[in-house]
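agent> Task received from the user: take the single chain below, predict its 3D structure, and emit structure tokens. No templates, no multimer pairing.
agent> Plan: (1) validate residues, (2) run structure prediction, (3) serialize to tokens, (4) report one or two observations.
agent> Step 1 OK, no nonstandard residues flagged.
tool_call: predict_structure(input=
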Amino acid sequence: MKAEPIPKRAKAHTMYTLADGTVVPGVTTVLQVLSKPALVTWANKLGLAGIDSTKFMDEKAAIGDLAHQMIADYLRGVQTDTSEYSKQQIDQAENAVLSFLEWAKYKRISPIFLEEPMVSEQYRFGGTPDCLALINGELTLLDIKTSAAIFPEMLIQIAAYRQLVIERGHTPYKLIILRVGRTADEGFEERLVNHVDKRLEIFLHALAIYNLQKELRG
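)
tool_result: status=success, residues=218
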């Protein structure tokens, strides 16, 4: 597979800064300290097939970024600018969006936050939740994934996002991971996340490890 050039927007990283000016790590950065055996197995399979896993992941990330933007723009009621993306990237992102639209068809969705960067002053980390919304009258934190599966770290991620929105004055009634595949083979999955306090505790331990490793590196 030949990867398409990655748009500039797919390479951007958000900097999270506390009120006192301290730069803190984002949720996805912190979760890199956790072991991800499924990712290692997947990368090995790509290597055996002669595929550069880094380029492959960059391509998939670009498609995921575009799908997220399209969904957020749909909820905002605006048109997405796709000029920086290839036809293949647009087609696969649209597949994911169609799955979302089918899920949302009979739901009343009133967004409160859409992809808004936030920080936790209490625990000193940042993140950008996909969507906090009233869905059929219930305050729901929605995390959209364009992956081939829902992995354990994703459940920890949304628990950390919940802490961010709580510190903004909102306590979600439901946490939902919505997996919208980029292709028919990747499919669709909705997961209601429970045991949120324990998952946040795992995240906070990961944050402590991240900070200690950073301190040791000087």
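agent> Step 4: summary for the user.
The longest helix spans residues 53-76.
agent> Done.
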